[in-house]
């Protein structure tokens, strides 16, 4: 178990449940978790594991005022988490060719994103391209997240991009989805949703736009980013938040 500085087990409340936090540096916990992985993956209906959540800083611990006594700082905590991932990858996922994904949570920024995914096949970015509840991000921050999605795919990793908003905000959905189309190089998935409504599936007409494959990467045209496709084009202006997805009519 993960203990706080008072010697008490650390719990994580979430909605109507309470989770007991475990120590990623514990050999016993690693072996127990691996045993559960083997058990679950013996079911042919499962094809891999998605870790929800993988904490990489003390952000959630700070929120609840419960700091792990076993770790002097965030770097040591992250190191233990990475060692556990490396252990799981070495002992099971790599030799069995099973993917290991994670929701990388408690990030304070995206500066170390590429280091976080070292021992993963893919990861989820749960606040990508747009900002909840403020809708749009500053253009420079938007561009940083765009490059993050491109770098992740270029490194051979898969990235799940989740943009948060309300179902009726079609302007925000269009902006987020167009942003995704600018950077999807075959190793990315997209969802526009709200964490309070994850059990729902929201469909939008632009999801059915038949653009065909891209003709190349995105490119800058003044302050507007564009990408050309076999049967259409996509445009995003991160300054004015205009976006368009144009598919040729059949």
Describe the structure.
The chain is α/β, with parallel strands linked by helices. The protein contains six helices and 13 strands. The strands form four sheets. A five-stranded parallel sheet has the order 3-4-5-8-9, covered by helices on one side. The protein has a four-stranded antiparallel sheet with strand order 10-11-12-13, with helices on one face. Strand 11 (224-229) and strand 12 (232-237) form a beta hairpin. The longest helix has 20 residues, at 74-93. The chain is globular.
User: What is the average of the pLDDT values?
Assistant: 95
The separation of the N and C termini measures 60 Å
Give the helix proportion (percent range): 25-40%
Overall shape: it is globular
Q: State the secondary-structure class.
A: alpha/beta
Count of separate DSSP helical elements = 6
User: Per DSSP, what share of the residues sits in E-state strands of 2 or more residues?
Assistant: 25-35%
Taking pLDDT < 50 over at least 5 consecutive residues as the criterion, the unreliable ranges are: none
Biggest sheet: strands side by side, in what order?
Answer: 3-4-5-8-9
Cα-atom radius of gyration: 20 Å
**Quantity of strands, as a count:** 13
Describe the largest sheet: 5 strands, parallel
- The secondary-structure element order is EEHEHHEHEEEHEHEEEEE
